[in-house]
């Protein structure tokens, strides 16, 4: 369920079996890169070797690369890294220039693909895959897996979260971070166009956050990336006009369909011009009547963050932006209210640990399943999950102001299987309530066994036709089952490393549920 572990000896053997000669006839590129702004004490440097030009071009969009990074490697700074410190990242598509063709459109070695991380050495070794997450090694491998392990050592957090700034009609601006599993709406939310008058949302990042408490006890966050690597299908002028305006130029599209007039196409995009024909992502002719999708469901755009029309003025601030709330969320068709607030930090850590989401399950399963994805980090933990939980708990000290923690769910469905909440730009109504909670406005919430939910008076549904009680109900039977299932998961997966504080949270939840 969580990451796989192997011994260093086995890892070295796996490398020795794959790498000798694997780049033969190809060009090897050396990419010095920085995760985070070059002048930020939060940032970390890396050097990636790769034999893929696609990786070089994508890394240039997703990270800060080049001479400035080499110069920084040569100069001492106050980040505690010492001169010359960098994460070592090695990548090969695993396909010599004149080797036997494994795949008609893409050099790779799918049967022997392996992605290794050595957290003790801050090293990444990736073989056989050109997939973004496996080959742009600054992203999931460095910024999340090795990053979370460095963060554990150094006392900060590397998380699978978006960062946005939200300004209310009074002109008060706050920043929040939000962790949702893949394909659950981070990029959409980070680029939200709020429907409530007077609200403004600005984007700092859409996928990864590095954050720490500063000397004054304020949590501050940077986006270690330089671009967006977003899911293309479903992105349109209606769902995410900001993303559509961002990807107009300097953008690399992967596994999308092509139009005969030189454009790109994917499912859910706006109407086609008459007379335009389409070639699907595999190079075959495609029409709207075809039985297969035009674009791969996980096709992506890779685009510079600075092209985003609502990029935040402080998105590259070396000191990061101050964070006032942490949101967790996932796709929960039943039982889970639109938003609830954790009672305190420890409960918030439990809420993150208990995250689940509906996913189109792996090939061996039928249909959709609700899967565990704690902190939206299940594929990205760089070390023991129990120690990770302890690390989150240890953030709360007398010297810091911990932010409020919330859980959101845009995906609750009614008896007919229809979404109960319009989502997208309307999600600013949830932000509006969250801001009221941060400001400690009176009478905004009522306690339930799982946390605080909004009162009718405090949650703005003006102009919407929704079933308020259905959307916010907390069914006790559902939650009792849920609590048991989560307790089993944590006890099975984390076992003796489960922190006592998390076990206490499980026990208190059962107590609240049995006497609501
Ligand atoms: P990764 O980039 O893989 O980490 O995922 P992500 O969290 O950025 O996901 P993304 O924003 O690409 O999620 C897109 C999916 O979520 C699409 O299917 C959207 O239609 C859906 N989605 C996003 N926001 C909402 C919402 O508010 N309501 C509903 N119903 N669907 C939404
Ligand atoms: Mn992601
Ligand atoms: Mn995304």
Automatic annotation (TrEMBL):
Subunit-level organization: Monomer.
A UniProt-annotated Pfam family: PEPCK_GTP
Biological processes per GO annotation: cellular response to glucose stimulus; gluconeogenesis; glycerol biosynthetic process from pyruvate; oxaloacetate metabolic process; propionate catabolic process; response to lipid; response to starvation
Gene3D superfamilies (alphabetical): 3.90.228.20, Phosphoenolpyruvate Carboxykinase, domain 1, Phosphoenolpyruvate Carboxykinase, domain 2
Cofactors named for this entry: Mn(2+)
InterPro entries with a match to the protein in the record: PEP_carboxykin_GTP_CS, PEP_carboxykinase_C, PEP_carboxykinase_GTP, PEP_carboxykinase_GTP_C, PEP_carboxykinase_GTP_N, PEP_carboxykinase_N
GO MF assignments: GTP binding; manganese ion binding; phosphoenolpyruvate carboxykinase (GTP) activity
First-tier enzyme category under EC: lyase
Free-text function comment from the UniProt entry: Catalyzes the conversion of oxaloacetate (OAA) to phosphoenolpyruvate (PEP), the rate-limiting step in the metabolic pathway that produces glucose from lactate and other precursors derived from the citric acid cycle.
GO cellular component, one term: cytosol
EC number in record: 4.1.1.32
Domain (Phosphoenolpyruvate carboxykinase C-terminal P-loop): residue spans on this chain: 156-509
Manganese among keywords: yes
Catalysis performed (reactions): oxaloacetate + GTP = phosphoenolpyruvate + GDP + CO2
Residue stretches making up the Phosphoenolpyruvate carboxykinase GTP-utilising N-terminal domain: 2-151
Organism (species): Aphis gossypii
Full protein name: Phosphoenolpyruvate carboxykinase [GTP]
Keywords, alphabetical: Decarboxylase, GTP-binding, Lyase, Manganese, Metal-binding, Nucleotide-binding
Transmembrane is among the record's keywords: no
Family statement drawn from the similarity comment of this UniProt entry: Belongs to the phosphoenolpyruvate carboxykinase [GTP] family.
């Amino acid at each position: 369920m969580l990451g796989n572990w192997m011994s260093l000896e086995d890892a070295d053997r796996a490398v020795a079996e794959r790498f000798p000669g694997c780049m033969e006839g190809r060009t090897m590129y050396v990419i010095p890169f920085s995760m985070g702004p070059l002048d930020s004490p939060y940032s970390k440097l890396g050097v990636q070797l790769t034999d893929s030009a696609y990786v070089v071009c994508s890394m240039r969009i997703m990270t800060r690369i080049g001479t400035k990074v080499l110069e920084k490697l040569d100069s001492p700074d106050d980040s505690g890294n010492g001169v010359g410190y960098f994460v070592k990242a090695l990548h090969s598509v695993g396909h010599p220039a004149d080797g036997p063709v494994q795949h008609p459109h893409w050099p790779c070695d799918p049967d022997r693909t392996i992605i290794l991380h050595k957290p003790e050495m801050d090293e990444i070794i990736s073989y056989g895959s050109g997939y973004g997450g496996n080959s742009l090694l600054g992203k999931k491998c460095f910024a999340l897996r090795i990053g979370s392990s460095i963060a554990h050592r150094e006392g900060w957090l590397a998380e699978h979260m978006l960062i946005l700034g939200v300004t209310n009609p009074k002109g008060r601006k706050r920043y929040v971070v939000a962790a949702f599993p893949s394909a659950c709406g981070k990029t959409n939310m980070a680029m939200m166009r709020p429907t409530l008058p007077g609200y403004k949302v600005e984007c700092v990042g859409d996928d990864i956050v590095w954050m720490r408490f500063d000397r004054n006890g304020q949590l501050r966050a940077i986006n270690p990336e330089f671009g967006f690597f977003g899911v293309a299908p479903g992105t349109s002028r209606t769902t995410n006009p900001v993303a559509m305006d961002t990807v107009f130029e300097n953008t690399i599209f992967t596994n999308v369909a092509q139009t005969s007039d030189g454009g790109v196409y994917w499912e859910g995009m706006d109407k086609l011009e008459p007379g335009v024909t389409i070639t699907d992502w595999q190079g075959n002719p495609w029409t709207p009547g075809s039985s297969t999708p035009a674009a791969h469901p996980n096709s992506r755009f890779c685009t510079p963050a600075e092209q985003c029309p609502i990029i935040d003025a402080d998105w590259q601030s070396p000191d990061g932006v101050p964070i006032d709330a942490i949101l967790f969320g996932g796709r929960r068709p039943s039982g889970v209210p639109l938003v609830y607030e954790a009672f305190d930090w420890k409960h918030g850590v439990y809420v993150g640990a208990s995250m689940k989401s509906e996913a189109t399950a792996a090939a061996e399963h039928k249909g959709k399943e609700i899967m565990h994805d704690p902190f939206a980090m299940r594929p990205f933990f760089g070390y023991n999950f129990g120690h990770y939980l302890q690390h989150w708990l240890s953030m709360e000290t007398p010297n810091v102001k911990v932010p409020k923690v919330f859980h959101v769910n845009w995906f609750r469905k009614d008896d007919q299987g229809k979404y109960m909440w319009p989502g997208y730009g309307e999600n600013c109504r949830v932000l509006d309530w969250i801001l009221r909670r941060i400001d400690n406005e009176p009478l905004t919430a009522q306690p339930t066994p799982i946390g605080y939910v909004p009162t009718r008076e405090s949650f703005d549904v003006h102009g919407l036709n929704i079933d308020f009680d259905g959307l916010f109900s907390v069914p006790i039977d559902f939650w009792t089952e849920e609590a048991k299932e989560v307790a089993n998961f944590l006890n099975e997966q984390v076992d003796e490393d489960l922190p006592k504080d998390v076990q206490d949270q499980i026990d208190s939840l059962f107590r609240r549920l049995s006497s609501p």
